[in-house]
Amino acid sequence: MHIVRALSSASPRLTSDGGGGSGDVPKDLRWAGEEEPEDDGSAERENILAKDGTAFEELPKDLQEALQGGAMSAAELRQWLALAARPILGALSRWFPAFRDRLMGNPRFLLVLAIEEIIGCTAKTIAEYQARGKDFWKEIDFVMSDLSLEIIGDFAIVWLLSPKKSFSAAPSGGLSLFASRLPGHSLQVGAFPLRYRLASIVLRGSQFFAVGCFASVLGHSLTIHLAEKRRQKLVKGKALKQKAGSPRLLPALPLDEEPEKELAPVARNSICWGTFMATSCNARYQLLNGLEERYLARLIPNKSLSTAVSALMRFGNTIVGSAQWIFIARQLGLQ
Asked: What share of residues in the chain are helix, strand, coil (percent, to 5)?
């Protein structure tokens, strides 16, 4: 058999069902030196592969190593084989192990991502329409620019806070090893020490700050570029009208009669938005993820109703966050 091997006295690495490696270890993966090596579950995993018609060599390399090292249970193997059989998700999971790890560690990952993107894009589009009014379609390039940043931001929030399973080798040491043991979010279910949960808040906050600054620099710079292109087009159009019109019928028009909208400096706007994501967004989404993971399914076992409640909770979170940012931006002179 490919995955039957002698086990060393050291226990294999097993990550929790979240972002780190300090969760409870399932009973069938607890080893004590060479005790009962025949009950290591290897035969069961071989039978699972045989029934599925999948050769051991067809598995991703890190999953092969996890099976050989005893760090992948039979249930996880079945989960991977079911995921790999799905046309699109299976291909994406093979190409992007990080995506696979989140799908396997968080059954709600795609659902939460879809809810967050739908709510975020819908709310953003409505806000853009209310702000631009009759100029909405004329300024659709600005709308699409802002909408793309909403998509990126929502994806980053869901991605960073999602629990995950990791089958790759643990980092050798230092901050990388410590970070690999942290939960996806501070309230994630699992035997995580308090210091790990607090560190998760700090780490996600720093990641949110980086994502927020990057997205804001990109979006604000693009907005300024589009505004300048629009201004140049307007000036050129007025110049052509003056040249083609009769002096007696068409008086000269000042080329700069359209008042320019003052835009906040890129650096200042980006730092403020990054700080807002690191504080308000981080705290709100940490709490929201914890409530969903710990209580939602327990209190509302019906999946359809649970999904509806999750959507309402996330919609309310979006409204609260939008109101907070508008208030802060106005106080800081960014709007």
From this structure: 70, 0, 30
Locate 145 and state its tokens: 């620019």
Q: In 269-303, which positions are buried (b, 16+ CB within 10 angstroms) versus exposed (e)?
A: bbbbbbbbbbebbbebbbebbbebbeebeeeeeee
**Whether the predicted model's global pTM rises above the 0.85 cut:** no
Of 104, 125, 159, the residue that ends a domain is 104
| Structural contact between residues 216 and 210, judged by C-beta atoms closer than 8 angstroms | no
DSSP 259: P
Identify the pLDDT of residue 91.
Answer: 94
pLDDT at 118: 93
Q: Of residues 177 and 23, which shows the higher confidence score?
A: 177
**Residues 188 and 306 occupy one common structural domain:** yes
Name the domain count of the chain. 2
Q: Kindly report the CA angle at 256 between 250 and 259, in degrees rounded to 5? A: 120
Is 14 part of any domain?
Answer: no
Q: Which of 72, 104, 136 delimits the end of a domain?
A: 104
Those residues whose C-beta lies under 8 Å from the C-beta of residue 270, and which sit 6 or more positions away, are: 212, 213, 216, 217, 220
d(CA 310, CA 316): 10
Q: How confident is the model at residue 42 (pLDDT cuts 50, 70, 90)?
A: confident
**Does 8 reside within a domain?**
no
Give me the domain span that covers residue 155: 107-331
Residue 32 pLDDT exceeds 80: no
269 located within any domain: yes
